[in-house]
Amino acid sequence: MTVRARNFRPYVGAPTSALARLLVLPRYAYREVFKAKLVTGLFTASFIVPVGALLVVWLKHNLAALARTPLANGLSFPIDERFFGFLLLTQSYFAFALTLFVCPSIVSPDLVNGALPLYLSRPINRWQYVAGKLLVLVLLLSAITWLPLLVVFLLEASLSPGSWGFTNISIAGSIVAASLLLVVLLSLVAMAISAWVRNPSIARALLFAGAVIPAAIGRILGRLLETELGRLLDLGAAWGRVLEGFFGIAVRSGGLPLTGAWLALLSASALALLALHRKLRAFEVVR
Amino acid sequence: MREASGQNEIVFHEVSKFYGEVLGVDRVSLSIPAGITGLVGPNGSGKTTLMNLATGLIRPTRGTVSVLGVPPTDPERMFETVGYCTSFEAFPPGATGRGFLEGLLSLRGDGTASARARAEKALFRAGLVEASSRKVASYSKGMKQRLRLAAAIAHEPRVLLLDEPLNGLDPMARAEVIDLFRTLAAEGRHVVISSHILHEVDLLADRVVLVKSGYVVAEGESHGLREEVAERPMQVLVRCDLPGVLAARLFSSGLVSEVELHEDGGGLLARTRTPEKFFLALNEAVTGGAVLIETVTPADDDVKAVYRYLIEGETVS
Amino acid sequence: MSREKRWKQLGAVAFLELRRLFFGRDGLTAFFFAVLPLVLMTLVVTIRRQPIPGGRVEHDFAILFQNLILQVTLYLGCVYVFGSLIRGEQIAKTLHFLFLSPVRREVIVLGKYLAGLVLTGAAFGGFSVLSYFVLLYGQGTGSLTAALGAGGVGHAAAYFGVCLLACAGYGAVFLVLGQWVKNPIVPAIAIWGWEHINFVLPEVLKRLGLIHYLLSLSPVTVDEGFIAVIGEPVPVWLAIPAPLVLAVGLVALAAWKVRHMEVDYGVE
To answer: What interface predicted TM-score (ipTM) does this complex get?
Structure first.
């Protein structure tokens, strides 16, 4: 037998930074995500309301322009916490719809096609993988939630006389905090379901079910047990209650306790992380 | 012109298949008789497309296909006589090897006892009896390949289409499976084997169909195929005592296009486009006492040579 | 091929599909959806100390049946089970095993549909009736006996029948969607929205929603709020055959489609 000289030498240069490696995931994911016309259409549609809000703010401060519109008698509502709270609530539906269509298609195929072991055989660990995929959603959802709403806020601040911006700086904080909470919660839950069921269509169905079933159960329990606690199962309602807490307004969540809403959101996030810990592995046990 | 209704053949008549704008196969006309037929070509050449067309998993964009006179649009009749071992790797989740086979046989209308007996026989022939009670998900690649094979032969079909059937098998298993193919062919069945690994088919097949980029570039018996490649010169190795004299004789009769004399002065390599006349001329040279010939060996009279010519587009140096 | 053999094949396809559904994730999820109302009712009767005020029980269950079972769990269960009968096998890359058997493709579709119908019908119908009985039992054994005597059995049978019709109708819709659309959840959400707003639609448009026919057969009518457009309930002679005719038509469409279907997992 010929024993050949061992001349293989591993790469000894400096690897790229962990962040650079992690950013490879979103780069390729975005390319895939925006191949779907539905996602591109939905993403574009997500800007209709913020653009409308920008227009409303501008019109309110340009009476001459306003006089030429059907709203010549003026826009009666003030630009305040309630305005931004409703704006964010509206954007949350778009955020949910985008998550529904985007997340399963960036996570499930990796698990079905055996791509995860390939990722994990590179200098990237499980949590970096999660962070990379999470980044895809966080950036996408940020672009339709807190970023456009902050633009609306800045326009209002720049057009308002005096120090409206400084006086209402808490609104900007609430926009960012409530949005980020929504974005992280949606992303984690959607990733966990996508990793768990490994089939994009079924993951979407389950995500949709996860939104409508608890809401229906909450309503039934409210009627049969005369309690609002059942609505804590509805993460949408729980997030709505937290949003009310941030903005100091009442929008949609009735008598839900704020602490209970926070607990529901934190428990859901913890469960999602646990599910990801269980499911995102480089190997699979066949029983 | 081939008949599309060959009662004892697999017939492709002017078949084209396009996947959108991508060409699968184009204008394929073939008649495959009983025995072992090798379908050879590189990956993406259209071998699987041809098999899928024959079994109706995909429909031709143009042309007709029939297997023993039955069109793929009539699955009830077709799959009584056809078994297809696909290269798709998946199996129904949760199934054991035996349960999977018995389920497939029950679809054929087999009762429990009959399905069990036929499944057992197929598992035995495929060498999978021991592992048959285990979940398929725990099988190795080779075991899954054997199970696919067992599924294809369980109903004892007259026509067996095997897409890359030796993939994933270790050398021992390959030998066993090749023996099984020979046995099946000897029983008078049609066995069509696709492969991109040439020597597998060269050793096994009675006939070879070479496919490249969606076109059939050659077909015929393995050794006869070479003669059909008229535009390529055939190489013949001749060991003799006077290679210079022989070369001059061959050149003067215009039967060779090129001759290389061996450095040891004991032979030559001739390239001819008219092999029959060339061999006749060699006989005359011997009988006339002009040269003493030790051996005459066709240097490229195998499928590999044709493959190299037609598929890899190489000229032989 | 003999008719007897074809029936045998239909049975075999349905049996294999049932086995796939029972032991696979699809069936488990449908079971989860189906059992949810029962769990909820058990929870309610366990937690609630006093009986529900008289006369409200039937009405409250009707709300649960309409808002949770028909419009949510059964609907989603049907999306899940019927949408994956063909599409699921395409995604799992196992459809060719059926297509390479000597079985007419129409028989395959019919067998799969029947398996889905048996599973969802039994699960949603059965657990709905059980939930109804649990709620009645929670009001005391006397209440249960009295309710059963006063038409409760008929109500239970009606709930079961409505579930069966719903599974037949929605099932056929999602069977077809699973074949025609790559991502059936998108139209499923759109149809869900349409069914959900049925109560505010004018009479003519109401009749374009399956839910209108199903609710017309429901034994107890539910007040749908002040924004609802009150319409005439569909008579029984029309409400029962309408979903069945829809189902037969759509299954026939699915059978036609499957004849021309190609198995090419590469482009999935």
So the answer is: 0.81
